[in-house]
Amino acid sequence: MHALQQLNDKLDELLKRYTALQTENKRLKKTVSQQIKVIDSLHEKLAAIEQNVTALHIGKSLEITDQKDAVKKQLDIVISEIDKILNTLND
To answer: 3-class SS at 91?
Structure first.
């Protein structure tokens, strides 16, 4: 009988540990799920930031191109004026 009581006590202890492990497992799964959501959110934010950086680079390159075009136009005007002055001097 004594052996049967020890076996019953060990079984109760194992059942308690099993229940505690199940509870911990559920808690850990919930934590993992939350962390995955946070990671997904951060990935989305990172993608948006990368798009913004790309847009900024494109915008800056367009500004530089616009500036180049404006400088070219100004140079063309100045050269045209110089040509007019030279033609006037040659006449």
So the answer is: coil
The tokens describing 27, both together, are: 């808690």
Instruction: Render pLDDT for 33-74 as a digit per residue (tens, 0 to 9).
Output: 999 999 999 999 999 999 989 888 877 777 777 777 887 888
- 47: Cα separation from own chain's centroid: 4
CA atoms in the 13 A half-sphere facing the CB of 44: 6
pTM over 0.70: no
Helix (H, G, I), strand (E, B) or coil at 1: coil
Q: Which two tokens stand for residue 23?
A: 């509870």
